[in-house]
Amino acid sequence: MDFITQSHYYRVMPMLLEGLVWTLLITGIGLIFGFILGAIFGFARLSKSKIIYGIATVYVEVVRGTPILAQILFIYFGLSDLLGVNIDKITASIIAIAINAGAYIAEIVRGAVYSIDKGQEEAGRSIGLTRNQTMRYIIWPQAFRRMIPPLGNQFVISLKDTSLFSVIAVGELLYMGQQYYGATFAAFEALTMVCIMYLVITVPTAVYLRRVERRLDV
């Protein structure tokens, strides 16, 4: 490996670190809103109201049934055209992560609540708690513990999904790598470092989640 090739591995780092910051920022903020959406629609999927259940089901199935690339293009170009406003690309990316992750988190919430033994609800009602109080104080704390591993997996998925946002020139990790090798023609070096930086985030996260899962015994 000659000196010029070696130097590319170091020279690309400042750009990739900048891209990594945007990647983590978009993922983090998007998942915060995604969790809120997921909790709302997850509980809606548990509703006895056919209308509420139906609305939640449409949201989940439409989002899960379409690729996130199509969703980001729809938000950035489609909604901008429909509303007659320019949606900032970072804002569009956060919205896309939130909406996409929200649909999957909704199913995580629904599955976690369903996994709690029905005797827990009966026990709550037997001591005088209302249905909402039983959910809040008995079922939800147990369900949330069971949601931690799949929520961590969703973080990894959403983190990798941000690489698709390079199509609208969001300065995330992959886009910054593309910018570097577009100017230097050092594609191998730049993309190798991009992959390594993704692995630095995803592999420790996966290891940690396995440990958490064993501790929770879920």
UniProtKB/TrEMBL annotation:
Transmembrane helix in keyword set: yes
Pfam families hit by this protein: BPD_transp_1 (PF00528)
Subcellular location per the Swiss-Prot or TrEMBL entry: Cell membrane
The keyword Transmembrane appears for this protein: yes
Domain ABC transmembrane type-1: 20-209
Family: Belongs to the binding-protein-dependent transport system permease family. HisMQ subfamily.
Name by which UniProt lists this protein: Glutamine ABC transporter permease
Organism annotation: Thalassobacillus devorans
Gene: glnP
